[in-house]
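User: Predict Alpha beta hydrolase's structure from this.
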Amino acid sequence: MKIFWIFRAAMAAELDVVNLFFVAGATLAIPILAFLASFLLWPSVLIKVYYWYWRRTLGLQVRYADCGGYRFCYSYRGKPGIRPSILMLHGFSAHKDMWLTVVKYLPKHLHIVCVDMPGHEGTTRTTTEDYSIQGQVRRIHQFVGSIHLNRKVFHLVGTSMGGNVAGVYAACYPSEICSMTLICPNGIKHPCETKFDNHLQDLEQSNFTLNIPLIPTTPDEMEDMFRLCSHVRFKIPQQILQGLVDVREPHNAFYEEVFMKIIGEKSRYALQEHLHLITSPLQVIWGKQDQVVDVSGATVIAELVPGCRVDLLDNCGHSVVMEKPCRTAKLILEFIILQQNARSGTKKSS
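Assistant:
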């Protein structure tokens, strides 16, 4: 009888172990299955979770700034300190999270602000808004005032469309800027044509009935856009490409409206038309293999802005922030420190 009870107890213990493994396996299986379901069925959800995770990991917080019925969405990290605050302006059809790859390599004590451009992502979108470069400059100035960023001079960074806006901003509000970095900015009459210039000519000849390469509507078109914008070839799963299309699709009509504004007569060369008004120290970063805005634009800017620093990146296209994030962060930080030291030296000598 005693042996029977010992045997029964042993069997019960084994069953408990089996149940434990079953429960543990089920617990692990739930998030794994959820991930697979998201990846296969709802890739757009997975993309949003990805951005949320990286913002959280990098210590960025999302906030909103209301200005007379207009709302800006932005993320920030750190507080104003010894170094200048950094305001980052993204490119066409992107959003504030495109800067995450660069923020990752910037010191955590720096005060960094990444804002959704007018009408993009979490910032207010209206049918009466002026999305020309000058219209966006006015809105960004409104945002800067609303969060009191201009209490001290700050460093302004812009890429592509955001670079065009940043340059015009610095020309219009020179007293607010201590220094500026433009990354592959559009708004310049570059001497050499690019693959995108050829697409643009075809679009104009078709009276814009052809698809715009920067507004993909299928996974294949999304892949083509990455090939156009990036020299580095990223292997992106089909499900993620579909997710990116799904995320962007509800906004495509808006993107078309903005696109027509920034290639219009009022905005197409806005940066070049304002270069002579820029007084703050200027850094230009450009990918040598840019197929959207030709790298020859860097020479044009350097000739028109005395003392402009030019950093050209090998094996890099238009998506500098995505292709060379570490190098980009290092160059921006070096330039900020160099300019701050120069100002300190000037003050001491005077």
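Residues 58 and 104 are 6 Å apart (CA to CA).
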